[in-house]
């Protein structure tokens, strides 16, 4: 059935349309308010999460973890370019002096002649001989002996004796460097017991034990060159008539004629009969 146009309620339609518009506006305002509130809530929650999970400076945990991650040694640039610290060098120990136990019993005479040293009226010529097979270079040994007897602290300072190295002809004595066995054998001809350890002066022979020549003495504080000087000065001292002496007093230099290998009696080690100033280093007489 068709409605009669004359009776259509036009005002009613307008009122209905206006009501719909009002309703739509209310819904839009509600949606806007809800959206703003939601953003505010999310902002508050995000800030709380930020504070709970960030580091003390406000850095998020993820960033802090990235910064604090330990770099493995293989990835570290310093490890790749910096060599490890070098270990401290181990000091090389001083070589142990060679001590030859047994020679051949034969000797090589050094073929060398030296100048006269000293101004004493008594010229004492000497030869240097080294037993074969004991590992001592004869020429070097002769030079060392010559230097010792040429030193102004040696016996030339007494004003009575002078010395000269010779290879042949007449001579006053021979300096022989030999194995302990040979030294013992030759020293025993004069009734001396050297026990494989010490030196002696017998029958125009200054016998030098190669063990002492190479190693010195545990009682002597000083380099091996000084102990060699003591050996020569002591035994040559016997050659020119000097006898044994004792320590003159605690802290004083031990006389060259003291048997220092047996102890210093409070003296200090010394290899020379005279001081640099020409004073003779004496002490009480000993057998």
From TrEMBL:
Locations of Low complexity compositional bias?
1-11, 56-81
Q: Where is the composition biased (Pro residues)?
A: 82-96
- Enumerate the residue ranges of region (Disordered): 1-26, 56-98
Residue ranges the record marks as coiled coil: none
SUPFAM superfamilies recorded: Metalloproteases ('zincins'), catalytic domain (SSF55486)
Q: Which residues form the DUF3152 domain?
A: 100-264
Q: Where is this chain compositionally biased, Basic residues type?
A: 12-26
Name used for this protein in its record: DUF3152 domain-containing protein
The protein's organism comes out as: Kitasatospora gansuensis
């Amino acid at each position: 059935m068709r409605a009669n146009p004359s009776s259509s309620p036009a005002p009613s339609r307008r009122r209905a349309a206006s009501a719909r518009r009002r309703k739509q506006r209310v819904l839009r305002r509600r949606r806007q308010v809800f959206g703003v509130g939601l953003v505010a809530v999310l902002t508050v929650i995000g800030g709380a999460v930020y504070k709970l999970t960030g580091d003390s400076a406000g850095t998020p945990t993820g960033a802090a973890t990235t910064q604090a991650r330990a770099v493995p040694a293989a990835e570290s640039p310093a490890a790749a370019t910096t060599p490890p610290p070098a270990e401290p060098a181990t000091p090389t120990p001083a070589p142990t002096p060679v001590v030859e136990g047994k020679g051949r019993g034969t000797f090589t005479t050094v073929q060398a002649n030296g100048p006269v040293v000293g101004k004493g009226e008594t010229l004492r010529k000497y030869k240097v001989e080294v037993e074969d097979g004991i590992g001592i270079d004869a020429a070097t040994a002769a030079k060392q002996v010559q230097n010792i007897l040429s030193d102004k602290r040696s016996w030339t300072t007494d004003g009575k004796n002078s010395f000269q190295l010779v290879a042949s002809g007449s001579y006053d004595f021979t300096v022989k460097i030999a194995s302990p066995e040979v030294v013992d054998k030759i020293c025993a001809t004069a009734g001396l017991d050297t026990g494989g350890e010490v030196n002696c002066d017998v029958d125009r022979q200054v016998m030098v034990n190669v063990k002492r020549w190479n190693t010195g003495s545990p009682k002597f504080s000083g380099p091996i060159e000084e102990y060699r000087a003591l050996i020569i000065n002591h035994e040559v001292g016997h050659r020119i008539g000097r006898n044994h002496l004792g320590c003159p007093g605690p802290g004083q230099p031990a006389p060259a004629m003291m048997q220092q290998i047996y102890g210093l009696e409070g003296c200090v080690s010394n290899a020379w009969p005279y001081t640099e100033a020409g004073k003779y280093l004496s002490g009480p007489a000993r057998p």
